[in-house]
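2024-03-11 09:14:02 DEBUG pipeline.ingest accepted 1 chain
2024-03-11 09:14:02 DEBUG pipeline.ingest length=338
2024-03-11 09:14:03 DEBUG pipeline.predict start
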Amino acid sequence: MNQYGVAVHGAGWVAAEHVRAFDADSRAHVVAISSRSKSSAIRLAQETEQTDAVIETELDDVLAREDVDVLVVCTPHDLHPANVIAAAEAGKHVLIEKPAALDLTGLRAMRNALSVAGVVSVVGFVLRWNPLFDVIKAQQANGALGDIYMAEVDYVHGLGPWYDQHKWSRTLAQGRSSFLNAGCHAVDALRYFTESDVVEVSAYTVVGSERFEYPGTAVMICKFSNGAIGKSLSNLDDRAPYKFRISLYGDRGTMLDNRVHSQTVVGQTDYATIPTVLPDSGDVSHHPFRGEVSHLLDCIEKGDESPLSLANSVNTHEACIAADISAVEGRPVELPLP
C-alpha cells in the first residue's frame, strides 16, 4: 500500500480538522505544515500532535519536497488560485477548501492548470459525506422520491467576531459575497440532489449588513439543465443557531431534512423520520472530513476524477457568481458565464 505525503498549507480553524483526518487514514502521512506565520504553523502542529511535521513559511519550499504528494489548501479564499496553480505545476494532488476561487479569472486559471497537470483535485464541499446526505441519496436510489422537480437548500450561519476567520472573510476582497464565502455549500447540495447543473440564476440581497462589507443575506432561485428548479438562502447575518435546511420535492415523494413521505409506501399518512446525523452544526469538528479525505485518496489510488474535482465544481462557483451579478443588475443570468 502506498503512503502519500501530505502538506497542509494554511493554519486556520479548518486546517486542524484536515490534519486529523489525514492522520487517521493509514494511507497518508502529514509531512509538512506551512503558513505565512511560522508561529501559526507551529501552533497547528502542536494542537494536532504532529511532532514529526516540518514547519515551513514558503509554499515554494513545500512544493519542492519530493515527499509531498498532496497539498491541502486552507489559506484565505483569495489566495486559493495562486496556491492551487503552483501545486498543479509542481505535480501535486490538491484538496481545496471552499470556495475554490472568488472570481471567474482565478477559477478558470485553476481549472486549466489542473487539467494540464493531470493531478487529482477535490473541492471541500465536505457536507457530501454527512450521513443525512447518504440517507437522502438512498431514498432517491430506491425510488421513494421519484424525479426531483423542486429543491431547496438553505445555509444559515450567523458569522460574527467570535469566528476566527471573520476578520478577513467579512471583507469584499477576501470574502466577496454571502454565497461565495459560505453559502456555496447549499448550492453544491442543490446540484447534488437534483443531479443537474444550474443554467439560470436570479437573486436578491439584503443591503446594509453590520458584519460584512457585502450583503450578508442573499437568496437565489435557479433553473437546472434537467428542468428542475431550485431555491437557496445564504444568511450570514442570522442571530440564531446554525441551520442547514434541505427540502426536496419529487413526483413520488417529498423529503424535508430526515423526514420522508412517499407514495411508494402503501398506507403512509404522515412523514416518517429516519434517525441519522444531521448537518446541524457550524463547528468544523462536526464535519465529516475523514470521508472527504478517504475519497481523495481513493481517487488518487484509482486514477479517477472526483465528482467534486475543480472542473466538476465550476458550475457551483459560477452559480454563486451569477447570483451576485443578478442581485446587482436586477436580471436573470444564464450559465455558463461568458
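2024-03-11 09:14:41 DEBUG pipeline.report The chain has a mean pLDDT of 97.
2024-03-11 09:14:41 DEBUG pipeline.predict end
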